[in-house]
């Protein structure tokens, strides 16, 4: 229902008739993003998620200063008091055994987070023992991180001078240990954990000493003679991290139900201490039967997410990650939570320590300092998860009932889905994103999580950057190895989104794509096959190796390589590669080309042409030369020049480049010409004498020494290379080039050392060379070649891949703006369709009054060139007038010239047809020239923008421009998006502009040219008027051998116009130069009516709505007839005082709706006539 609403017009358009309603449903040609945007990539975003200095904590120093049984003198303990250290009661066993047990327990607790680290314990140490421990760990760790854990519960508090306390050898004194010395021994990078009272003092002292070290480093760098410069440089402390149990003025809590090392317990056993603390809160009374002893019996393991304990740990990880990601700056989050596995675990647990210890008026401190997180809303979700788990605990332990998993992740996914569905355009990031990451670990929720993640990534590059910053990359990389088929489409979409934003990740995929090619690439191919816009070759076609020709490929030059997807599939198999290359067909009849040729790449519209570069004159190719080679190149000469058979793939690629160098779209031709120029340059380099030490491997003798003449590609199709002048390119983007120059004397073949032999580089390859053999080593580069090689390498680039990535990085699931009822685009379309309705209605009312005369001149002006084709815009007061190679736009209401631009066709060609595409909406102008080229323009008659070529392609092959032929004739079907084209050829070619490919070649069955085309989408009929006087009717639904359903041969001369009336029972109206007008019923073999009008016609048109026929004569007048053959009026003079005689009529056309007639004559004048003013 929603889709229907989006496609239908607004309710305010209810008065439109059926034709007006059709405007909303008519397809638009060449209006997709690839046609409207500049083909270039977006500016690359700085990816802060990728950690360049990823680290690992490889060594851990556990320094415990407990002195079991002896309390420090500056601490007064309460009674009862917290006694547990690492969940061990030190008074339950001997002091030494208790110390060793506590040390072993602490190591086990750390090993849960980093099992591969090297652990060293120092129990009640001296200063020398600490120094020895730290220096040895730093030496072994090299550039990796070292952790220093300090428990000072058995020594005095830290001093304001930056000292902590250890013992002497006899344990009779407390010995101070300077933090400055500790920094020197530990080096950087390091992480320090201080579990003692007043621990904040250590953090402050550490910062002061670090600043002092930085100043010493600066002094030593500035003044080498300074005493500090002679000493070993102190290590920088920038990469050091600190975690302290409390502020500088605070004491550790002494709650008897909590451990004495509460801070250490939070960091190393977070779930255990969190459950104990939860049970001590008042809210625990809501969960009956749960005691401190009961929580010690929670079943399961921390690393098993299917058990209660493992699920709680999983939820805890997700919640703490989410809190950190939402509160911390992105760079700090990356450093603390994504750089080092152990550091990330400690900081996640530090958030719990802040929450628990703040409840006892104790504030943990960190460096870098974190914003407060103990009041974050996600802690309530944690409390709920703990509550649900503990409520099941009595029945699980006592009755053995099954554990019911927490709904936490499902609820968070729902919250994320609500954010995606209900959020506004500009919104803050979803706080559940890190949780979605954790959910990917669950097989139960993975499919839903991937679906939501894909929808989130579709919001744009910013969403992809957020997902990468939270750490999605390793998760989705691992999921590529999954064998679950239902995940494949989602993973393909997600990876496409990621790679579109960060293409550097392709490297990370290399080994996986190779290893899992059948699992991943096949999915991509499967989805590409399901795209109906680009049909794939049939298996038989693929097997035979027949590829889609370039000249018959999509008409959008920027996307011609898209149609080559089937070709790529045809040659990707190693078994069929060689066979496919050998079977390539490039005959003129097939119009074939090699789909994977360099010229088939799409070019960025901003790519600069090398034709204007003066330093590259001798390697320049002209447009006319390339086009001449493309048309009349000698097979035998090309064969003898290259030295390989004509059927070889090299020859065929060469011919493809020649075709593409003459492409009507400038970017395509420029790119092909750059490729040809680079080949010309390489041929010049390779033709120089090369010193060969051994010629035993050569299978043929070296050719004669090259001459000193420049090598030019324009001679590749015929005679051998000689020095000549490169002719100019007539396109509007290519300027005339100066003449070529001789090669410098330094490049001539000079005599080498005595006895040495020389041969061109191309002849150094043996005849038996394998396909992928790299060949002989290249000689050292000539210093003179540096400029040319840099020019060539810079030229061979397009922006197509970057643009494709940018296009896919944007939202693809979002409702298009034109379907948004409140969007600006939608409002503009409504206005245009209301305008169309008004024009149709007013024109129809005027026609219903009857046409008695059509000679009121409402517009007259001198055109810049002799008009050859004229075309009214159907709904705006604009008329397009084409001369030989330019288009002029006039406002026939105001009498103003709106625009004038060059069509871009070569000087020996002319414009022979024009059509308005999307005339009911965003209009484009299609021009056709007698060389078979089709060009589509936008922004014409626009005061704010310059005309711009949307696309261009070779609509017809093998057309030779001539002044006596019909040129190229076209007819456009807006309802189907089909373009019919013909002319001085023996076929009618149908192009599908939606799929951007050739659909059908219908043979005309005649030896003369096609002079007029007309089609009817309702009946699928095509009517063609020919130069031999015949009128032929084709049904494009039938097979090629049967599609010509009728041939009328009643005319004896050139058919000027053949029109198929657009109604179910519409007749065919045809007129020849002899003036005989014949009406045919497509079902009858003979004409049903014949009229005779003036002879010697040069132009004629039939009004599609009124029964009017207008014709222009060589005798300098225009006559208007009714449908019954009655002369309404004739026009011989221009209006005004002393009105001069009109020139010979060169073209004329009726307005599609209004009773207006535009007439162009050979005297350069363009006039528009209408009915009498009193009637209008």
Automatic annotation (TrEMBL):
Signal peptide: none annotated. One of its GO terms (cellular component) is TORC1 complex. GO terms for biological process: cellular response to amino acid stimulus; cellular response to starvation; positive regulation of cell growth; regulation of autophagy; TORC1 signaling. Residues 719-731 have a biased composition (Low complexity). Keywords: Repeat, WD repeat. One of its GO terms (molecular function) is protein-macromolecule adaptor activity. Pfam families: Raptor_N (PF14538), WD40 (PF00400). Residues 697-708 have a biased composition (Polar residues). Residues 54-207 form the Raptor N-terminal CASPase-like domain. Residues 697-789 are annotated as: Disordered. This is Regulatory associated protein of MTOR complex 1. It comes from Pipistrellus kuhlii (Kuhl's pipistrelle).
